[in-house]
Amino acid sequence: MFKKNRLLAPIHILWIPLLKKSYGSRDILFAEIFEAHLRGPGFVMEPPGRVEFSNSTGGWLDCSASGSPQPTIEWVHADSTTVTEIHGVRRVLRNGTMVLLPFPAAAYHQDVHNTIYRCVASNSVGRVVSRDVQVRAVVAQAYKVDVEVLSASRGCTAILRCVVPTFVKELVRVVSWVHEPAIYIYPSLQGDGKFHLLPTGELLIHNLQETDESQSFRCRSMHRLTRQVVVSSPTRLRINCKETHRGIISPSVVEHTTHVQVSQDEGAVLLCVAQGCPSPEYRSKAKTYYVIVKIDKERKVEICNA
Q: What dotted CATH number matches 39-138?
């Protein structure tokens, strides 16, 4: 028995180096393959640069990334400190989404509801930081809209404008007008010959007649965050200067676009509304300007003349 053990021991000792020598190159190959599959994080869904929401609905910011190993997602403030959960106010989900919960007006916190966030994706290879995300929560407030009527003479064009309070003006748009009792007028480029709702919200009523004074109109507006629709009180038209000017009034521009900002490949509406009798004819002139951007591009500005 003793001799048998002496013979087995050297064999066992020799076998271990043989295993290491046999698999050493394969271990290196496996390591190289593993390293070749390592990949730093890249955003699959980067949050937008600006997020607005109403306190009655709440909001959320999505962020996801890919890489190898799979990156982890966290949110940071503008000063790079980590965003933490606040019970009943702010949550950070496992999938990388940050949720800002609905809240009463009294629970508004500027450092939560009007601040800058960034999404950070990281793994063992590296990390990537998103653009700044400006978050703005708007506390819903009750408002009402009124109708301003720019009267005109018989045979001319009247302009009805929906007056929105200043404190919600940037959040409210005119979606339609109602010709009482139940005729809805929606924005269009040409109108129907009698009524023309401009994309900017003004309602044009052409070829005014005395019978038009008995008609009523309402403005319908919508809050773009709460989707609340607010309708004005009914308003009647006024036709003046029926005999004094005998239907002849020189044209004057009463509403026009002073500046407009658009992104590349997007359309723009340039408003030009004039009053006069007979109805003014319109023409436009184009002037070329060069604006300094990342790449110089030619911009054209339409000058309205009536």
A: 2.60.40.10
